[in-house]
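Q: I'm writing up a methods section and want to include an example of the input and output format. Could you take the sequence below and give the corresponding predicted structure tokens, formatted cleanly so I can copy it straight into the document?
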Amino acid sequence: MLWGKPNRGASVICWTSLLGQQFYAWLRDRCGHQFNAGDAMVRSLNARTVANLGAVCALTVLLGACSSMSLTSSSPPPEPALERAMPASIRADEIVGRWGLASFQDPKDRARTENAAKGQCKQPYVIGAGTHGGVVMHLADQATPQELDLKGSPSGKNYIGPTGPAAGPQDREIVSFDGRVMVTRFIDKDAATRYGNMVYVRCAPRA
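A: Here is the clean output for your methods example:
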């Protein structure tokens, strides 16, 4: 903002800037006044001052940009490790092997379903041993099997699923297991409705 008072010695009213002496000579020139040697020296000095201030400002902007680039290019924080569930009471090696597989919805059909599962041993479902202590099985609606953990819980229930807390949305509960027959049911309600109670009957060893 320009502040000052009228120059009453000229036909045009001019204002004196309080922001910097470098504008004084320019204002006088616009009003028809002559410069003297002192004015020229002031202009030269002020020109150097303005140039120096401009260099300082440019350096400040450059340093700010470098600081901003350094902050934005920093690596993101590492993802937290997945929480593991408590150990299951059923070991992974107890369910590794060849199984006949069938399923039922109505509990009254369990015995009949076990017999149907025995007949599937001609084309058994194979539960493999994982490389990290788990078992290799399919998740719901997944065509490719993957290593899954056996998980325990404070309630005593056992689950099979990806690494993480027990009874997760992709887990299946081991409803019952006696070494020969295993029954599982998915935790996800939609998957549980579609797949039902899955009955695994251990196939006889190959001759």
